[in-house]
């Protein structure tokens, strides 16, 4: 193994570790990270097992196949030990955090110490080190912002850290070194080791983002530099961890400015809606409320106290499921009128709200009208969200920034619920679905516990985001395996179809001896199949097709001297290539010599102008009547024109987009576009768990959309889409 990788430093650092207690927040992060990395590593090992199994199936020789199977056996036997060792190593990084970049920098300095040092490193170790360095560099570039934030915060809570020497237990170089140390026990060769590192990069290192975000969130909740934000460009380097006070102030100013811009945009939308509603009142001849002497304006606090006494909109049966039945829009204006009737006014004045409060209530009503008509929401989630009309009304009266702040806790929670529920299908079993149970419990808690304290929404949203991160992590691993499996299956299917088509076309033109026909269809077809699959690396596909053409040419009688001279030059190499290819695919060894002997005999007979040589069969396909051909062409053109606009919509679909399919029997299901496999013009869709549910071509999807059986779902933030719809509706009414 490579001695330059920093493994010895990590081991010595642990042995020198003290028993100082770990801060509580660091301990919490350690538990989360160790568990999360353990789950990701399981996915990586599963992918390694699949890769080795596929390589063994496609091996060129028995020795190569046995090598892959032995590697599979070795990894399966020692896998649990490696996983346990890696998790312990990661846990130790939090107990005694190494200084950020020390492992990687030390490794580089050791390699640069002497020009002769490279000669002491074996090719295998050097290849592994290159793979590790590439993995670490890519991760640092991709997660630059979260890594810098986390390093700054860890350096605040770890006493041994200094401004010149910060710490970060989750730095990619430390995690990669912990993994390379853990796989020392595996007795596998460099190719299998590189496969293991590749899957570790794909499943573990590439998914560090969610763990880095969770670690930052925990430290923010603990009050560790809560306002720190990273605004650097990709590849930008920052000197030090926390920087000077002026740098931090500049970063905080940028964050504050960006927040102000977002708030200004939202406030502009709210002001626009207020003006449109005021214009409606003016067109209807309604005088300004404040100028009416017979009206007593009810303040926000008094109105909120009246609304607090309202019962929540729960089903009549306490044990009934909240998502049962149909979503029902509540007339919030009538509700407010009822509570205003309870106000004790002086001098017989009529209680009323000021125009801003009235506009906000109308806006909440229009908001839920949109939600209850929004087809993008799955029906159960739509019903659950409809239960929140009274609580959201209370939120808006208490805190008017609900519409002007995109980061408002209640607004964020509604957006999260809608986004998470987009993949729900009517056929899903609500009684056993964790996501449904979670959304149901959140709505239930709001209905039962909300007493005007907005922090409840913040708590519920944080808990829900953590739940979603865990569920999405599991689904993404399953989806990754599904996607890779489908790509392999479709590529294999296309390879087999291509080989069968080419051989069928070529063999139909000639009357070949049975021996030759058997070699091509039962043996050489396997060589062509593997060559097609590996063509992007080995580029042998055209060579295997040429072998078929050369063999058929050699079996045909040739009278010209030049052709006979060419025959003499081609046949020896052709026979050698045929034998080598058939041996590579483990063709029946006991029959190979007999088959090759028979082939030589047939070639010799063809050379002597024997009639056993292949002759072209003139069997033209019966021509279709001109009328039928024209009719078919016209029909095809008409059909292409009819689906052209739908094909454009299909081409605009993005990976990760959700759609709904409706079956002929009226049932429907929702799924997500997981992969577009161009070689087979195949669109692969998966469900919320990452499992494949359907696969169709571009044209098939266009036809489904034309028939009304495929709908593209919008995934934008629910409240933002609702506000846009409200503005559009108000503009049309006041035009």
Structure description:
Residues 235-252 have a biased composition (Low complexity). This is Thymidine phosphorylase. Residues 1-23, 233-263, 609-638 are annotated as: Disordered. It holds the Pfam family DUF1631. There is one protein chain. This protein is mainly alpha-helical. The protein has five domains: 7-226, no CATH class; 240-268; 289-481 and 722-734, no CATH class; 509-607, no CATH class; 626-716, SH3 type barrels, CATH 2.30.30. The protein has helices at residues 7-15, 24-57, 62-95, 102-112, 123-142, 144-157, 172-182, 190-203, 208-221, 245-283, 300-308, 332-340, 355-373, 379-386, 389-398, 409-420, 434-449, 455-507, 514-533, 535-538, 541-555, 561-584, 589-607, 626-651, 698-706, 718-734; strands at 295-297, 350-352, 658-662, 668-677, 682-686, 692-697, 710-712. It has a five-stranded antiparallel beta sheet. Helix 2 (24-57) crosses helix 8 and helix 6 packs parallel to helix 9. The radius of gyration is 35 Å and the shape is elongated.
Write a short abstract of this structure.
The chain has 735 residues and is mostly helical.
Number of strands: 7
Shape: elongated
Number of helices: 26
* Derived structural class: mainly alpha
Cα end-to-end separation: 76 Å
Please mark out the parts with pLDDT under 50 across 5 or more consecutive residues, or reply none.
1-19, 101-121, 231-265, 313-319, 610-626
**Overall mean pLDDT:** 77
Q: Biggest sheet: strands, sense, closure?
A: 5 strands, antiparallel
Please give the order of strands in the largest beta sheet: 6-5-4-3-7
* Rounded Rg: 35 Å
Q: Into which percent range does the helicity of residues fall?
A: 55-70%
> Domains counted in the coordinates: how many?
5
Give the strand content. Answer: under 5%
Protein name: Thymidine phosphorylase
